[in-house]
Amino acid sequence: MQNQWKTLLNELSPTLQKQLAAQRQASADSPATEYLSCLTEFETLSITGSDRLTFLQGQMTCDFTAIEGKLLLGANCNLKGRASATFYAIDNAADETTQLILPVGQATFLKELLDKYALFSKAELSAENTDHVIIGLIGEKSLAITGLSSLDSNQSTNIAQGNISRVNDTNLFLCVVSTTLAQQWFDAISEGSNTSNNLTITQQNTWTQQQIASGIPHVTTDSQDLFIPQELNYDLINGISFTKGCYKGQEIIARLHYRGSYKQRTCRFQCETDIEPKPGTSIYRENTDQPCGQVIQSTTTNSGVELLAVIKVKALESEPLHLEQKDGPILHGLTLPYAITNKEE
Question: Are residues 175 and 241 in the same domain?
Fold first, then answer.
């Protein structure tokens, strides 16, 4: 997929190249316009065959029996119930193909984990891609470039050259489209056509920032097998089904759910620093040597860095939190668009 992006970006018009260069310097804190974000840090894993949904149903936290016309959010977990990979999922029944959309570096990793189980199913996995890219549209009016007028929460629809899906009830639209269609969209933006609605082309950081603001974390190669899905708030954003059958790690995940309390949850913070922390960076209470949390995702903004981090619930009740060391940059809490429930008592 990186080769497809390299070709497309090299062929951008001077106008769009200028837009993209400007977005490298600063992302929009609260987009007042509509954006087309080049999601170069996502990739796909394709699962094909008549048994693909049954196969995935036994491997993932989400309910693949409900995928028709839907975008799913889910995780693949190890036997201890910790998330090895997280993804969005879309399906094309006509082509007997399900695609998982994951952070770069996760597709091959997850394929290797699943291949041994796929041997017993009519399902084949492929991390190879030669004909599509992943694009993020930001803002309600941005959808016009797809030819669609609206999409409901988590609605997913297949079009002639790809798939368009709405992420939960946000104004984020995830598009897996052919390179040909992507080029047509770039041309429309460059020419200022009516369908482009004055879209601005951006790097992935604009999308990441909006995804962080929406409280949707993803596991990367630096954070594999560290957190149970509930610590990522996946039970609060439709990433876990508690009514489906068994899957790897399900016993632990279900036990914690019915116990009703968690020691850690994902929270959102802003930090005045010029250095974007990597996933796994520790978070500390003031004057305490023991970490109380870890960064999951972060991105630079006009005012520093915005991030999602898994934090011990009790640590949120007391002293200020600091990034990387006990006297490091102070983390300022930001709101999430959903309530954190089942806190530890």
Answer: no
Q: How far is CA 301 from the centre of its chain?
A: 18
Distance CA 161, CA 184 (A): 11
Same domain, 235 and 118: no
Phi, psi (deg, nearest 5) at residue 341: -110, 175
Domain membership of residue 162 as a residue range: 2-21+31-207
The Cα 282–Cα 91 span in angstroms is: 37
**Total domains in the fold of the chain:** 2
Domain holding 93: CATH number? 3.30.1360.120
Residue 341 belongs to some domain of the structure: no
Q: What is the pLDDT along the chain (345 residues), one digit of tens a residue?
A: 678 888 888 888 787 787 777 765 445 444 457 999 999 999 999 999 999 999 999 999 999 999 999 999 999 999 999 999 999 999 999 999 999 999 999 999 999 999 998 888 889 999 987 789 999 999 999 999 999 999 999 999 999 899 999 999 999 999 999 999 999 999 999 888 767 777 899 999 999 999 999 999 999 999 999 999 999 999 999 999 999 989 999 999 999 888 877 899 999 999 999 899 999 999 999 878 999 999 999 999 888 999 999 999 989 887 799 999 999 999 999 999 999 875 444
Q: Please give the backbone phi and psi of residue 338, each rounded to the nearest 5 degrees, phi first.
A: -140, 160
